[in-house]
Amino acid sequence: MTCRKVKKALPLLAGGDLPPGKVRKVLAHLERCSTCREELAEYKRALGRVKAAAREEGVKDWTGAEWQALIAGIAASKTRRRGPAFGLRSRWALATGLAAVIVLAATVFIFKDAAFRRQEILPGSSPDVVSVTMVSHETGLQVVWFLNKNFEWKGDQK
Amino acid sequence: MRMNETEKELVAIILSGRSEAFEPLVAPYRQSLLALAFRLTRNWEDAREVAQEALLRAFKYLARYDTSRSFRNWLFQIAANEARDRSRKRLREADVIENAQRELPAANDPESGRRSQEFRSDLEKCLSVLGRREREVFILRDLEEMDIKETARALGCSSISVRVNLSSARRKIRDTIRTLYPHLEEGQ
């Protein structure tokens, strides 16, 4: 391994996080390279210093009363949350129901439309109802006959 | 780190409806949770809120907790997520404030700037050179001593990403100590 590759691996090696497969190769290099050895030691010192600084940094704590109040509040939240949690579920149920109705309506609309179109374009198909319009040239009177598909008279409109 | 038997029993008791078992479950971590929250937020007020929210969520979602994991790491994961959300919110707020301040005449007070700089701890100076992800990874892995896998799980990223960020964080910290704080490097 070259120094360049080893130097890249040193930060992880310093904290014991280098994958085992690489560790052997890096250690073999370190045995014969004092520069890389010194750099590894520097990483270890730096990590040690930061960890020590973290330990020395004053860490606050809750007072006994604050802690008890916090825990009591959390325990009490269990009963308080039941209402809104149920409400949330109800809202989800309502939204799901509404979405189902919309999807159903859209499906009906699409298929109805498609069936209508198919009726129009299929060869040999005939509409259920036909109308015949007769117009008088003299009086302008219009008579419309409605017939079913068997040409049985269903009514008229004047 | 796996969950111990006592914790497992306490979780089972809480899930059976006896919430009084929550206090003994979380009490061993009360200070370390607050310390983690402080290291992530660098503000005691935020740290308290983050820790409180983490405890509240741990209680609320205890049924989802996988008992094969360490409870401590699960609790810390919740705190890390909460701290990240809060940090994003703060950044957005800071942007708004910064924009508003740009429109005001600059109030130069070099003395107060110098004082606040002096009060920053050595640890904070080191952490301040890290990016957000590097900082989270460094704190969880090196200061809280989670392993790589747990750190990745806590931060919702891959082990490779953790290693990359950790390597970069350690390099930056080494450089910071070497150049700016030789007294730390020499151990004085």
Keywords:
heterodimer, A: alpha+beta, 3-stranded antiparallel sheet, 4 helices, 3 strands, elongated, B: 188 residues, mainly alpha
Question: Which outline of chain B best applies?
Answer: globular
Hey, roughly how much beta strand do the residues of chain A contain? 5-15%
Describe the largest sheet of chain B. none
User: What sort of overall outline of chain A do the alpha carbons produce when their principal axes are compared?
Assistant: elongated
State the major sheet of chain A.
3 strands, antiparallel
The helical percent of chain B reads: over 70%
Give an overview in words:
The complex is a heterodimer of chains A (158) and B (188). Chain A is of the alpha+beta class and 158 residues long. Chain A is built from four helices and three strands, in the order ααααβββ. Chain A has helices spanning 3-14, 20-32, 34-56, 64-121; strands at 129-135, 142-148, 153-157. In chain A, helix 1 runs parallel beside helix 3 (34-56). Chain B is mostly helical and 188 residues long. Residues 105-110 and 112-119 of chain B have low confidence and may be disordered. The radius of gyration of chain B is 19 Å and the shape is globular. The chains are: A alpha+beta (158), B mainly alpha (188). The interface between A and B is medium-sized, with 29 and 40 residues.
